[in-house]
Amino acid sequence: MNTTTTLILNFLLIAVLSASIAYAIMRWCYSPTRHAELASKFDDIYIGGLNAGAIVLLSLSLAFAFSDISNVHLRAKSSLLQESDALRTMGRLALNIDSSVGVPLMAATRDYASNVLQKEWPAMQQGNSQAIRKVENSALQALTVMSDIVYSTENLARLPTVTSMQLGALVTRVREQRLLRVDASDFSVSIRGRILACITLLASSAILSLAFLTKPFGQYL
Asked: 201 vs 25, 52, 115, 195, CA distance in Å?
């Protein structure tokens, strides 16, 4: 399922949920046993205050939801930048070390970057972290090859100690940031967030409905 389809389905879900809540409230308000009492109590209420209250509740709901999304987006962006920076630095080092180590290391680095873009990136866009953890949809094999080259005893003997330590730190950073990137792609709104969104949606709908007790169509809209 692509991003556009997901957005359309989410919009339809929100629209159906909102319409269902509004219809339930409208039917409750307009039942013969309640309408007269509600109208006498709330028909003359100041609508501006009601609108302000509803806006506050809706704003709180949106703020909580978008706060979580924004935090995850920032973590994913940070991990992606650090991972790509480590790969770039590793590639530059591979060009300036012993060719017996640098050539295969450069090939492994390019293979890893290619696998990330062709295999892991589509799965991340779909929010499917489980697919990334499978071998056929993962860049882990290329990362393992890259790690084996860096930590090989023979290769370590051919490189200066400082260079070996720097390559080891870069591989470690790639592994860590990859895991953070994969975890970020599996983000979903928590149960607490969903409950809070439902409560604020219901409360704001109820408040707005009180302003349209004598106008059924306006209340539902």
From this structure: 12, 14, 43, 10
The H-or-E segment that residue 189 falls in is: none
Is the Cβ–Cβ distance between 5 and 179 less than 8 Å? no
Q: How far apart are CA 71 and CA 185, in angstroms?
A: 12
**pLDDT band per the 50, 70, 90 thresholds, residue 44:** low
For tokens 């957005």, what's the residue? Answer: 7
What SS3 string covers 84-101? Answer: HHHHHHHHHHHCCCCHHH
Alpha helices, DSSP H only, in 95-190? 99-115, 121-125, 129-132, 140-151, 153-158, 161-185
> Residue 210 pLDDT > 60, yes or no?
yes
Give the closest residue to 95 by CA, choosing from 83, 105, 108, 84: 105
97 is written with which tokens?
Answer: 């070390």
Instruction: Return the higher-pLDDT residue of 12 and 63.
Output: 12
Query: What amino acid occupies position 23?
Result: Y
Half-sphere exposure of 114 (CA within 13 A, CB side): 8
Most confident of 97-101, 127-131, 192-196: 97-101
